[in-house]
Amino acid sequence: MNAYDIIRRPVITEQSMESVADKKYVFMVAVNATKPEIKEAVEKVFGVKVAKVNTIRSQGKAKRTGAYPMGRRPETKKAIVTLTPDSKTIEFFEGMV
């Protein structure tokens, strides 16, 4: 997997935008990606230094479709990436705060 397969998209919510001031950024990532892979991908794509990576994995929810068989929503994984204090910020998030 390359870096663009690991990082799917940024998470743009009020809560995630409040943490941008603390140099914490939230991304949806591939479900099978590990913390070192996420760190390497963010550093490669955005050219920043990553201090820490926390991950949250959500199970897919069972949903009724109105008929048989019952369907499932996909599993998701979020990564909260904390940058080092001397690192530059990610420009993508600058205009959204």
Any overview of this molecule?
The protein has 97 residues and is of the alpha+beta class. It has one domain (3-84): Alpha-Beta Plaits. The protein contains 3 helices and 6 strands. The strands form 2 sheets. It has a 4-stranded antiparallel β-sheet. A hairpin with a 7-residue loop joins strand 4 and strand 5 (71-72). The chain is elongated. The mean pLDDT is 91.
CATH architectural name: 2-Layer Sandwich
Which percent range describes the beta-strand content? 25-35%
Shape: elongated
Distance between the ends: 31 Å
- Indicate the CATH topology: Alpha-Beta Plaits
* Count of discrete alpha- or pi-helical segments spanning 4 or more residues: 3
Low-confidence stretches: none
Largest sheet composition: 4 strands, antiparallel
Count of structural domains:
1
Cα-based radius of gyration, to the nearest Å: 15 Å
What name goes with the CATH superfamily?
RRM (RNA recognition motif) domain
